[in-house]
Amino acid sequence: MTALKQSRFPVEVFPKAIQEIIIATKETLGFPVDFIGASILYAASVAIGNTCKVEIKGGFQEGAVLYLAIVARPGTNKTHP
Asked: What is the distance between the alpha carbons of residues 64 and 49, in angstroms, rounded to a whole number?
């Protein structure tokens, strides 16, 4: 079974290069795909910061900043992702 089928995290929505990074970290370092995928989304949001905003309705703008907390039992490879 591939790493994509073992997780319900939608790795397939990422560009192919990012999918390869997620799968490689799963296979070589044992990181859960949802931990590394979420961490990549967080890193991208920090890189974008407040440079881009979307206006959902008149006068209300929202930035790309995400807040992330990886919660799991001890020893589940949370720290590195």
From this structure: 6
